[in-house]
Amino acid sequence: MTRPASAPAMADLHRLLDDLVSEVPGTEVAVLLSTDGLPLAASREVNRDAGELVAAAAAGLHALAVVAGSSIHGGTTLRTIVEMEHVLLAIEPAGDSAVLAVAFSGAPDPASVNGPVTAAASQAAKALAAVHAARRANAPDAADPAAPGTKHRAGRHARADDDAFATG
Predict the structure, then answer these.
(1) Per its UniProt record, what SUPFAM superfamilies does this chain match (predicted)?
(2) Could you give the residue ranges of the DSSP H alpha helices within the chain?
(3) CATH code for the domain of 86
(4) Which of 4, 52, 120, 147 has the most crowded Cβ, counting Cβ within 10 A?
């Protein structure tokens, strides 16, 4: 089976998330998701159920922060931080249609994780743009949904990867 042209870019996303988890102390999981909560990619230790749960929670929490910021004229939501007794969840936009959610154990100081999360979100946005560009370049005529090789998917966003939890 031939792999789609976007496969190398998806591998880059998985590698980026794995690197974040392995290189930043206390990082437990990282999930890249669409703004409506579909998991797009995840770090190695995230199984499907956990990835979908993190994605749904992160999308909802970040959406609440966006609405609250808009309601109180706070401007653009830069990131959403949820501090719990044992975990800190950082959620940051990764481009216009994706969000990066990263969970840290030990509830670190939010200031200590902002830099790595912001850098990873920026890199994820670039890699996701490469995935979309590769798919557009190789897509059959979008006007013909019955064209060979096209699959109809319900929902507003198609997943960037048919299996967001596969690393290769």
Answers:
(1) Roadblock/LC7 domain
(2) 7-23, 48-71, 110-138
(3) 3.30.450.30
(4) 120
